[in-house]
Amino acid sequence: METISTMEIKDNTFARQFETMTPEGLIAIEYSFQEKKIFLTKINTPDTFENEALIDALLKNIMEIIIERKFKLMPIHPRVVKFIKKNPEYKELLPPGIRM
Predict the structure, then answer these.
(1) How does pLDDT run across 13-41, given as a tens digit for each residue?
(2) What is the helix (H) or strand (E) element at residue 64, kind and residue range?
(3) What is the pTM of this model?
(4) Closest CA to 7 of 63, 85, 49
(5) CA distance 86 to 78
(6) How confident is the model at residue 2 (pLDDT cuts 50, 70, 90)?
(7) Could you tell me which of 51, 99, 56, 52 has the C-alpha nearest to residue 75?
(8) Separation of alpha carbons 93 and 14, rounded Å
(9) 66-96 in b/e burial notation, b at 16+ Cβ within 10 A?
């Protein structure tokens, strides 16, 4: 499993997605913006990809990027919602009124 410190994440602003390369291929988490909120909308993985721990590591890295950029998080994709429920320290990123 890749650790947070060694994972290289590219913010592909043209494709509006965070990307990281794995031995199985590219993993991408699509996003959109609206008024200082980032909506994580879709997770794309290679067909044979099954490493849930790596997805968690990628999401943790993305949460740090969101904190650094001072955005609020709108977790649209069910996998992102599951991650936030499992990691309540990131609930502070949710806008007021959004509960999980």
Answers:
(1) 999 999 999 888 999 999 999 989 999 99
(2) helix 52-69
(3) 0.88
(4) 63
(5) 12
(6) very low
(7) 99
(8) 24
(9) beeeebbbbbebebbebbbeeeeebeebbee
